[in-house]
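Title: Prediction job returns without error message
Component: structure pipeline
Severity: low
Priority: P3
Assignee: unassigned

Description:
Job completed but the reporter wants confirmation the result is attached to the right record. Sequence as submitted:
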Amino acid sequence: MHVLTHTEEMDYFKRAQKYPTLHDVVRLMVNQGMRPEEITALAKADIDLDRALIHIREGKSTVAKRVFDMTTGSRAILRPAPDGRRISVDVSFQKAGRESPMAGSTPPTTAL
């Protein structure tokens, strides 16, 4: 396993800005320490913006079921923008066959 250096991480996110969905999903992984499959399994009910919590209800084991306190960065990714749009990570959620917490959203023109 290779752990990214700070420089590698910054380079990755600079390149990923062209792909807002990928950028945001990986930012959630980094911010929250979540596995890719945990992000793709999220349902709208798993995200509590008022209390800044993310509920993981499925996982590799019983201890994988847990609750994360959202980081400020994660909350910015998941909350609606002032115009009502949300950053779209719909591709990941649809792949999992679940309702996206960002259903009906319009992707922003720039990534965070």
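Comment from assignee: result matches the submitted record. The longest strand covers residues 53-56.
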